[in-house]
Design goal:
Shape: globular
Strand order of the largest sheet: 2-3-5-4
Number of strands: 6
Number of domains: 1
Largest sheet: 4 strands, antiparallel
Structural class: alpha+beta
Helix content: 10-25%
């Protein structure tokens, strides 16, 4: 029996923060729970992130899994057209790039998605959703 795959945005399974240093954009992608982290660890790779940002990213992507905090750290090099002061983009500092990352689509099975959404979220807020 084969599982039915579907495309979903990362926003269904995670939240993110982004910032910049010189000409780099730095992301923290955080799964809501360990079940979701297993999917992120499989689906969110440097190559897939580079493909997602390919229209404007000439540089490379580095990716570090951080399973102890259910997160993935990503760095996009040469992402700000030379840096904040030289960049003509509206968000020249990379602060809102987390929203663009969360729109990246990944493949999950129907069963995986159901398990990720059913698992309780973990975080500093305790057991509240």
């Amino acid at each position: 029996m084969t599982a039915t795959l579907q495309k979903i945005q990362l926003a269904r399974l995670a939240h993110a923060r982004s910032g910049d240093k010189a000409d780099w954009v730095d992301f923290g992608l955080f799964a809501w729970n360990a079940t979701g982290y297993a999917v992120l660890a499989r689906e969110v790779t440097a190559q897939r992130v580079a493909e997602h940002f390919a229209p404007w990213l000439p540089g490379r992507v580095e990716c570090w899994p951080l399973p102890n905090i259910l997160a993935i750290k990503l760095v996009l090099h040469d992402a700000l057209q030379g840096g904040g002061a030289r960049n003509l983009r509206l968000d020249n500092l990379g602060k809102s790039m987390a929203a663009a990352l969360l729109r990246m689509e990944i493949n999950v099975s129907t069963d995986e998605l159901a398990a990720c959404l059913a698992a309780p979220r973990v975080g500093w807020w305790g057991d509240k959703p």
